Amino acid sequence: MNFNIIISLLALYILTTSCEKIIDVDLNEANPAPVFEAILENDSTCVVTASLTSSYYDNSTSPAITNATMTISDQLGNSETLSHEGDGVYRGSSILGIIGNTYTLDINIDGELYSASSTILPTTSIDSCSIQDRGSLFGGGGAPGPPQYFVYVNYTDPGNLTNFYAIQTTYYDSVEVGYTTDYRIADDELSNGISTRSFTTFNSFKQGDTLRIELASIDPATHLYFKTLQDALAGGGFASAAPANPTTNFSEGALGYFGAWSKDEIEFIIP
Fold first, then answer.
1. Contact in structure between 134 and 143 (CB atoms under 8 Å)
2. What pLDDT is recorded for position 160?
3. Which of 33, 56, 109, 153 measures 20 to 30 Å from 70, CA to CA?
4. How far apart are the first and last CA of the chain?
């Protein structure tokens, strides 16, 4: 599972409701920051994508970081140095994600040190998937043609701890003419220890469509990153403050996240 949704959001839009004020906004023309997307799944090796933020006025791809030294270690003293595969992608080879272990990723770029830690929590198993007619959800009607369905993933939340989830749904998009992936986050604040039905994507589907759904059990820091990313993307309305960067678990001003998690997955065909 690759949650490659890393984005550096810059403060770019300032509005006031009663007066005009000049505010200097850093559009990142002179001081690029490193951005890391680091993932360690249970029974898999660590993969990191590293890049630099680019200027707000530059629409080109963010430049890759190719000169980093990255080391991953666990609380038992095991460690390894990740290999650079090219284009800013680094990969481990010997340390596999194990449920219950806490992992630390240390990154050195020209003497600048960055670090983040994450813990792999127990897997929550997917019980099933279910559908709801799009028309019935909105009180009847719906789009003309074949019925359209929303899809839910069903699971039983463990009641012995606070749980956070990332739900990834991959499907064929006939509009984009290719496969696409949607992401949602969830928690058990209102569903601790009970059977739970979580929405997968705002896209609707027809009979016979196939979806690949993954339910990842993530730690609080990873959840906070995705939550603040979601809030920043959603915005706060016309007169809201400018968005901030998502809350990272990396030190020393780096952006992005290091997430270690376990997951369950299912392939579901709309009946």
1. yes
2. 83
3. 56
4. 25
Alpha carbon 137 to its chain's center = 27
Report the C-alpha dihedral over residues 256, 261, 266, 270, rounded to 10 degrees: -40
Residue 145 DSSP class: S
Taking a C-beta distance cutoff of 8 angstroms, is the pair 129, 151 a contact?
yes
Q: Which own/partner pairs from 137-142 qualify as long-range (CB within 8 Å, at least 24 positions apart)?
A: none
Tell me, what's the pLDDT at 175?
Answer: 74
- Give the pLDDT confidence score for residue 144 in this predicted structure: 63
| Residue type at 104 in one-letter notation | T
Q: SS3 for 224?
A: helix
Domains of the chain and any CATH numbers: 34-122+218-262 (2.60.40.10), 126-215 (no CATH)
* Number of Cβ atoms within 10 Å of the Cβ of 37: 22
DSSP state of 153: E
Indicate the residue type of 141.
G
**Amino acid symbol at 74:** D
Strand-strand pairing, 149-156 and 195-199: antiparallel
Contact 218, 166 (CB under 8 A): yes
Residue ranges for the chain with pLDDT beneath 50: 1-28, 56-57, 236-242
